[in-house]
What we know:
- InterPro entries: UPF0145_dom_sf, UPF0145_YbjQ-like.
- By secondary structure, the chain is of the alpha+beta class.
- The protein has a single domain (3-120), classed as 2-Layer Sandwich (Translation Initiation Factor IF3), CATH 3.30.110.70.
- Helix content is 34%, strand content 38%.
- The protein contains 3 helices and 4 strands.
- It has a 4-stranded mixed β-sheet.
- Strand 3 and strand 4 (106-120) form a beta hairpin.
- The longest helix is centred in the middle third of the chain and has 24 residues, at 63-86.
Amino acid sequence: MSIDEFGGGQGPDPDVLVVTTNDIPGYRVERVLGEVFGLTVRSRHIGSKIGAGLKSVVGGELRGLTKTLVQTRNQAMDRLVEQARARGANGVLAFRFDVTDAADIGTEVCAYGTAVVLARE
C-alpha cells in the first residue's frame, strides 16, 4: 500500500502509517506482524549539564536539552519505522514513546508499537 492510498502521511517515511490508536477508520488489519521498536540512548555532554544546572536556579526551558530530546525521539521513531518496513508492515498501531534515564549519564528513548499490514475496507 502506498502513501497515496492513505491520503497523506507524516514524517520522513510516509509509506508506513504510524498511529497511536488501535485501529484506523476505513482500514482493516490483514495481518499482525508483532511488536516493533526503535531504541536510542543519548549522553548528556558536560556543557548541557552545567547549563541545565544554572537554568534550574533561575527557571525556564532547557532549550539545549529540549532540542536533544526531540532529535532523540525522531531517531527512535525512524528506527521503529525501519524495523516495521523490514518486517513487511505498512502500518504501526498503538504507537508509544518510553523515556528513561540511563544510569544518570544519558536518556534512553524507546518508540514502540504493533506492526501490521493494512488494507482499505
